[in-house]
Write a structure and sequence with these properties.
Elements: E1 14-15, H1 17-29, E2 33-41, E3 47-55, H2 56-63, E4 72-76, E5 79-83, H3 88-91, E6 95-99, E7 111-115, E8 121-123, E9 129-132
């Protein structure tokens, strides 16, 4: 069964080149793992972005669910990012990026960041927590 909202925009969740680069480095070390992007409750704004590694068995379990709704999978080369179907509506318009430390710009750590579509959601200062508009 195809989800109606998945036809709105083929790039409903965007992943930057920096994020793909970092995911590729992780994938080289964790060969039998892929990524799951979902939403958890909590944080100062109500919801948290959650990007984590899942092994092939968990990936197949998600993908071969008995539900009639197949999860969206974003692929680049050998990297797969599975979007949790329950979370997908909350994640529409989100960009996954990776920033590298740059002391001159006041960035003191390497990390994934999540940038929601400003028309759909807003984040607090931490960048992990968000609320829908």
């Amino acid at each position: 069964m195809k989800r109606l909202f998945s036809t709105i925009n083929n790039n409903s969740i965007n992943i930057t080149n920096n994020a793909w680069f970092k995911m590729n480095k992780i994938k080289k070390k964790k060969k039998n793992y892929n990524f799951l992007f979902n939403v958890t409750s909590g944080g100062c704004s109500g919801f948290n972005f959650n990007l984590k590694l899942i092994d092939e068995n968990k990936f197949k379990e998600f993908y071969n669910t008995k539900s009639k709704i197949l999860p969206t999978v974003i692929k680049k080369n050998n990297i797969k990012v599975l979007i949790d179907p329950v979370s997908e509506l909350f994640l529409l318009g989100t960009t996954i990026d990776f920033i590298f430390e740059d002391f001159d710009k006041g960035i003191f750590e390497n990390k994934f960041i999540f940038i929601p579509d400003k028309n759909l959601a807003s984040t607090c200062g931490c960048g992990i927590s968000f609320t829908l508009k």
